[in-house]
Amino acid sequence: MGAIAKRPVITPSSVGKRQGEIKKVINVKKIARNVRRPNRSIGGDIFIGFILIIFGIFFAFPLVFTINHAFKPMTELFLWPPRLWVINPTTANFQDLFILMARSWVTFSRYIFNTLFITVLGTGGHLFIASLGAYAISRYEFPGSKLFFKVVIVSLMFSGHVTAIPNFLVLANLRMIDSYWAILVPAFAGSLGFFLLKQFIDTVPVTLSEAAKIDGAGEWRIYSQIIMPLVKPAILTATIFSVQFLWNTQAGHLIHTEQLRPLPFALQQIVAGGIARAGVGAAVSLVMMVVPLTLFIVAQSRILQTMASSGIKE
Amino acid sequence: METTAVIKPTGFAKLVANRKRRWGYTWESIKQHKVLYLFLAPYAILFTIFTVGPVGISIFYSFTHFNVYEPPRFIGVQNYLNLFLADDIFLIALRNTFLLALITGPLGYMMAFLFAWFINELPRYLRAFVTLVFYAPTLSGAVFLVWQIMFAGDSLGYANAWLMRMGIIHETQYWLTDPELMMPVIIIVVLWMSLGAGFLAFIAGLSTIDPAMYEAGLVDGVKNRWQELWFITLPNMKGMLMFGAVMAITQSFAVGDVTAQLMGFPSTDYAVHTVVNHLVDYGTIRFEMGYASAIATVLFLSMIYANKGVQFMISKVGS
């Protein structure tokens, strides 16, 4: 009873006062955000804006072109002088694409399934085993752990071309050629994702996992319930790199059975039909680019969000 | 958890004893961390099979004659002699690759950092969008094929049509088949695609630098953003700069798919024939695996040494 009696009496006028105070604080913050940082010149801002616009056009142009091209009717595709923007947008190219798909020897949904399967399982498997290993060598130092990470860093310094031939021979010896595994298993062992995860786990304070250990948590528990939720940004980043790679994999030399071929391979065959497929080709490019772009847009905001909310500093 | 032995060798006997003890500790440590080995094992095994092992296999085959159908036959350094003394096309490929790496490596690297930094200077609501625009070429895989239409040799090609309309050129240029124009075109396309993992690392790195550092810099008399970049931002991003350099160098030596798809395989007069193209030629078309492995080994060593050299330079800059 006493505690309740001690509470300040709430009257309409006092509420108004408080709200006024809060508003003032918000206003001050807003002003602080809008005020120019004192060491930023306007000239510099204009220069940066100018450079970004020029190069932004250079980087965006082929994409804008692809989008426009995909919706152009035949009469506009071969217009002279060539024109970037579409005048009478049509979905004819996509309809043509669907007709070509329907005529395909293997049901087209099979190609889509193949690529989805490879992308999802490849990325999932890669993230799982890479994050497990990254956790182990980031949290602890044990014989061989440092050397192993050094080798991973060296592996970032050469491209897959160097190992392509031996990889093929290894896959052939393991009897994985002409199956999903030929794409999946090497993708599991990607070194970029492993590297990024290890580096990011390093930034999580050791005190956190030590506290959990004192509370009796085992390694698996610390890994799955403490570290993994904290390294979401790194996981998303590794996901993007992995998806980007697997989604575009054609694997023409690894898979020969038509039923197992991924989508980019099938689409490439359609585009290879020649000049008459110019519009369809643009439609194909557009279809292929939608998935990684969407994922990046979604993940980018999540990365910023998780970065802002993780807030761990030693 | 760590058990480190302080070793002060005063005599041979002590040295031996210490070594024994150290191995003992190592063994103890391995036993102690066996769960962690279990954690690392799946990745480590696959990584060894598909990355570490293949480098060794490649070096081994490079000293043999191997065509997959017969067992490999040891021929010493004959493959390398043939490469550097008898294979003119390889020398062209090597020259083209180094030229591309020398131009697109540093330029791509600087572009990635400058754009990331400029984007970081933008208001928050614009950053995500501009990042997307700059990263989109890398994201969208095979979209680089549109450059084929941009640089088409007929008057329907955008480059030809626009340059002719502006009166800069008067007849159509064969951008993709004229040996004099092919290299510049490839450089443009490669630079267009060069903002990859390093670029994202720079953006992330720039946004995680503690704002208090900048405030402190302001108090200490940092006058403009260039000084801020030099005295505060760069020293705080050394790790990211190193990572970006590794990505840029590796990528700049690995150009090959782009040249083959835009300009044909082989390209006119081998004007943009790269080491990667040569490798694909011998590895997947002629099935001369020993020879191809020698090419792969040369590529491997070029990439590693370029990386090591640049890392050495970056480490010197700060000190």
In short:
The complex is a heterodimer of chains A (314) and B (319). Chain A is an all-alpha fold. Chain A has 15 helices and no strands.
What does this structure look like?
The complex is a heterodimer of chains A (314) and B (319). With 314 residues, chain A is mainly α. In chain A, 73% of the residues lie in helices and 0% in strands. Chain A contains 15 helices and no strands. In chain A, helix 6 (108-139) runs antiparallel to helix 13 and helix 11 packs antiparallel against helix 12. The radius of gyration of chain A is 27 Å and the shape is globular. Residues 1-10, 28-34 and 304-314 of chain A have low confidence and may be disordered. Chain B has 319 residues and is mostly helical. Chain B is built from 15 helices and 2 strands. Chain B has a two-stranded antiparallel sheet with strand order 1-2. In chain B, strand 1 (64-65) and strand 2 (73-74) form a beta hairpin. Chain B starts with 11 loop residues before the first helix and ends with a helix. The model of chain B has no long low-confidence stretch (mean pLDDT 85).
What is the averaged pLDDT score of chain B?
Answer: 85
CA-based gyration radius of chain A: 27 Å
Task: Determine the oligomeric state from the structure.
Answer: heterodimer
The H/E string of chain B reads HHEEHHHHHHHHHHHHH
Instruction: Give helix % range of chain A.
Output: over 70%
Question: How does the major sheet of chain B shape up?
Answer: 2 strands, antiparallel
Computed CA radius of gyration of chain B, to the nearest angstrom: 26 Å
What are the segments of chain A in which pLDDT stays under 50 over at least 5 consecutive residues? Answer: 1-10, 28-34, 304-314
How many β-strand stretches of chain B? 2
> What's the SSE pattern of chain A?
HHHHHHHHHHHHHHH
The largest pleated sheet of chain A is described as: none
Distance between the ends of chain A? 44 Å
* Fraction of residues in H or I helices of chain B: over 70%
Flag low-confidence runs of chain B. Answer: none
- Biggest chain contact: A-B, 92 and 102 residues
Q: How would the global form of chain B be characterised?
A: flat
Task: Return the structural class of chain A.
Answer: mainly alpha
**Kindly, what is the distance between the CA atoms of the first and last residues of chain B, rounded to a whole number of angstroms?**
34 Å
